[in-house]
Design goal:
By secondary structure, the protein is α+β, with helices and mostly antiparallel strands. Helices cover 32% and strands 22% of the residues. The protein starts with a strand and ends with a strand. Bound molecules: octanoyl-coenzyme A.
């Protein structure tokens, strides 16, 4: 079987940062406004009073301290509680493509490739800004790449599933150098008035270049030794926004937003993740001590520590299972790729590592990697 590598990676990080302190201050102002406006109904027991959010809870329960967002305006205004931005005209790149261009350029430079070398682009993310024409095809035009392009969505596992598609396309002979981009423009889907979820997500875009080892000229590359993808249906993480919404006689105010049963997700996903990674380790005869890095999905610090413990059979040492969620928050499918991009340099040739996503679906995408050069 053809040896396939990740030969470059890139991350575009929006400039604007929102700290927990800022987010909680505006949320609590919103709570005061809501409770004052609804005082009569609250006193009559017809409406439940809203409760304050807290920085201590957010950091302890999730590990998140701050997040980057594309549009900060509106999110922190207690009368708005959502990002506000103009719809771009057709002759301007949509946000997701703009982010993808920046991340792709870094990945291409790292791989020592130009856009002309790319013959497949996969845009894989939890939300695709418009159904068609595919964002990836607009990106293909903007970069000046050839071949073909398509969009796909497996929520938090979009990046790992896309990389596995790239590997299969290279092995199947339908592509030779693939660009995978993961523009996670999550903030418009966050319900900033929901105490349970207002702190969870941030915006970012990641990119990876996947190609046959024989064509790779990058200083470093990471062979994809094995891939295991797993899905199992669950309603515990949902978003119901749809192109059919305008046909429904009833309006669901929750439809545009991410929502989840966080505790259930935590409990149900972890065994699935551990099983998938362990199964792939067994198949490839990789012992826990052979794994030099765990680039895990970035949703929750406690979840990552738990998963690392299960896989390694001990507590992870500093830097073994790198965290980026403290400053990026949950960035859906981009999280494990940011962890990889920012923490791959310490490995030496021959070192093995795992990159694993997990999230809505449920879906788990596990890539076993080995530093190739
Ligand atoms: N401030 C203060 N208190 C709070 C807050 C808050 N903000 N929120 C909840 N509480 C309270 C609750 O009311 C509860 O109080 P009580 O005990 O009195 O009932 C208490 O704190 C505990 O609440 P929870 O049980 O909800 O808290 P947890 O400890 O479970 O932590 C987490 C909540 C952090 C959400 C946690 O459950 C978690 O991270 N779970 C894992 C979730 C996960 O991994 N999900 C994957 C989602 S990502 C994904 O799939 C991508 C989808 C596509 C992305 C789309 C982009 C938007």
């Amino acid at each position: 079987m053809k040896k396939v590598v990740i030969s470059g990676s890139g991350v575009f990080t929006p400039e604007s940062i929102i700290t927990n302190e800022e987010l909680v201050a505006s949320f609590n102002q919103y709570v005061d406004l809501f409770n004052a406006e609804n005082a009569e109904a609250i006193n009559a027991g017809e409406v439940a009073a809203l409760e304050y959010s807290s920085c201590e809870f957010i950091e302890k329960a999730s590990g998140i301290k701050s997040r980057h967002v594309l549009y900060k305006d509106g999110i922190l205004d207690p009368n708005t509680m959502q990002p506000v931005f103009h719809k771009r005209p057709e002759d301007q790149l949509p946000e997701m493509v703009e982010m993808a261009v920046a991340a792709a350029k870094e990945a291409l430079a790292q791989a020592g490739k130009t856009a002309a070398d790319i013959d497949l682009i996969i845009c894989a993310a939890s939300n695709i800004q418009r159904p068609y024409p595919a964002l990836s095809i607009e990106l293909q035009k903007e970069l000046g790449a050839g071949g073909y392009a398509f969009d796909m969505n497996v929520a938090c596992s979009s990046a790992t599933f896309a990389i596995s598609n790239a590997v299969n396309a290279i092995r199947g002979g339908t592509a030779s150098v693939v660009l995978v981009v993961n523009p996670e423009f999550a903030s418009p889907q966050v319900n900033y008035t929901s105490r349970d979820s207002h702190f969870i997500f941030g915006d970012v875009c990641t990119a990876t270049i996947i190609e046959a080892a024989e064509t790779a000229t990058a200083e470093n590359s990471y062979e994809i030794l094995g891939m295991k993808l797993k899905t199992e249906f669950s309603n515990n993480i949902r978003c119901d926004v749809s192109y059919v919404d305008h046909c429904h006689p009833e309006v669901d105010p929750e439809a545009p937003f991410f929502r989840q049963q966080g505790r259930k997700v935590f409990k149900e996903l972890l065994p699935l993740v551990a099983d998938v990674i362990q199964g792939e380790m067994d198949r490839l005869q990789i012992a826990p001590d052979d794994l030099k890095r765990l680039w895990l999905h970035q949703a929750n610090i406690n979840m990552n520590i738990f998963a690392a413990r299960k896989i390694l059979g001990r507590d992870p040492e500093a830097g073994e299972a790198p965290l980026v969620l403290d400053t990026y928050a949950n960035t859906a499918s981009a999280g494990s790729i940011i962890a990889f991009h920012q923490n791959k340099q310490g490995l030496v040739v021959g070192d093995k590592a795992v990159l694993c996503s997990f999230g809505a679906g449920y879906s788990v995408g596990c890539l076993m990697l080995q530093r190739n050069r």
